[in-house]
Design goal:
Number of domains: 1
Helix content: over 70%
Shape: rod-shaped
Number of helices: 2
Radius of gyration: 35 Å
Largest sheet: none
Structural class: mainly alpha
Distance between the termini: 15 Å
Number of strands: 0
């Protein structure tokens, strides 16, 4: 009768442990999926940032072209007093446009940098939470294992008497 009772208690303990392990596995899978989603978002953000950097490089090339055009315009202005007035107006317009492009590029770069930083921070926090949960669950499993080992030892001692 005692052996049968111990077998039942042991089976119930094993079932509880199986339930805990299954619960932890399910939670880990949810966290893994969340991590994958964060990685996808990070890749998307990086692609957006790369596109913005490409646009910035293109704008820089355009600015270099504008500077060349300004130099030519200034040389022509020296040749003609009448052309000097028209070219001065053009220079002012191009400079303002260049400043606007630079300001827009700088704003876009800052926004993308902030987004990437926020995504990385979220990702790091998610990993820290996952690691903390895993450590807690491992500690609980260790405690349950010790309790089960103690119970088995007591049962063996009681059976030996």
């Amino acid at each position: 009768m005692k052996k049968h009772l111990f077998t039942i208690i042991n089976a119930v303990g094993c079932l509880l442990r199986l339930g805990i392990v299954s619960l932890q596995w399910g939670q880990n899978e949810l966290q893994r999926q969340a991590f994958r989603n964060l990685q996808k978002e990070l890749r998307s953000t990086e692609e957006t940032r790369d596109e913005a950097l490409d646009r910035a490089a293109s704008l820089s090339a355009d600015l270099a072209d504008l500077k060349t055009a300004l130099t030519i315009a200034q040389k022509s202005a020296e040749d003609s007093a009448l052309a000097q007035k028209a070219q001065s107006d053009q220079l002012a317009a191009l400079t303002a446009e260049r400043d606007q492009l630079i300001a827009r590029r700088d704003t876009q770069n800052q926004e993308l940098t902030d987004q990437v930083t926020a995504q990385v921070t979220e990702w790091q926090e998610a990993i820290k939470k996952r690691d903390a949960t895993i450590k807690e669950q491992n500690a609980l499993l260790d405690a349950q294992r010790l309790k089960l080992n103690e119970a088995i030892t007591k049962l063996k001692q009681a059976g030996a008497r």
